[in-house]
Amino acid sequence: MSMPILIGIIVLTVVIYTIVNACAKAEHPFRKSVFGIISGFFSLAAVNLLSSLTNVAIPVSSVSLLVSAIGGVPGVTLMLALNAFF
Prior knowledge:
Blueprint: H1 3-23, H2 29-49, H3 51-54, H4 62-85
Helix pairs in contact: 1-2, 1-4, 2-4
């Protein structure tokens, strides 16, 4: 995947997430959106950093990054559950 497409996907994700938070009448929609995206990335990184201890890893790809960005911590938890069952 080329870099401009990846940057476009990231920007579009932030914009859509901010619009959803604004429609939900969040007090600070942009701040809440960025915090949700960053927490998703950090939880994905934590899972992969602790994979040597837990023997559970999520391969980092564009799909897993998108799910962790949109879903945040629940998105990473969902990927872990799907990884355990399939």
